[in-house]
Fold this sequence. Notes:
Helices cover about 90% and strands about 0% of the residues. By secondary structure, it is mainly α. The longest helix is centred in the N-terminal third of the chain and has 48 residues, at about 1-50. The protein starts with a helix and ends with a helix.
Amino acid sequence: MLPLMMILQAVAGTALGRAGAALGAAIAAFAGAFGISKIGQSALEAGARQPEQAGHYRMTAIIIAALVEGACLFAIVVCLIAK
């Protein structure tokens, strides 16, 4: 009886670890997408208020979005490795 309980706990622990890693990766992807959408929204609003600076806002938004995407990708990789 005891070895069976140990096997069941090991299997359940592995399954919960994988589910937690998948959930963490999903949250990281959602947070990255939300952050990039807020950056785009702010850049469009700023460009509408000051059209002469729209190019500057667009370039800044692209750079910041790339940094957010890199951080999101790093978080997803860490979640999937930590399972």
